[in-house]
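<amino_acid_chain>
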Amino acid sequence: QVQLVESGGGLVQTGGSLRLSCAASGRTASSSAMGWFRQQPNSDREFVAAITADGRTTYYADSAKGRFTISRDTAKNTVYLQMNSLRPEDTAVYFCAAQADNRLYYYGHYYQYWGQGTQVTVSS
């Protein structure tokens, strides 16, 4: 079992930056890969980025490459998503998720545990 709590969302202007955090706890948290997803109103959940348990391997959606960086503090069991050059189309609820097999997947149904989400709003 893994519990996930996101934080760091908010309102930012176009071109601004935000850093999201996801604090993980539970018996298998430290051995799980972690992913970030986002969901806009009336849309499916969309993959953003993922990172392995040791923090050495990452995987990004095309929309995130060059602007977003996923990282992990293994001592704190916390995963971060640094988002730069934000655009109005990045507005969404952002979720972190845990993948118990430590695999990096694009599709959300491969992730077993989910946080409650944090709202990111980018104004134009």
About this structure: The longest strand covers residues 18-25. The radius of gyration is 13 Å.
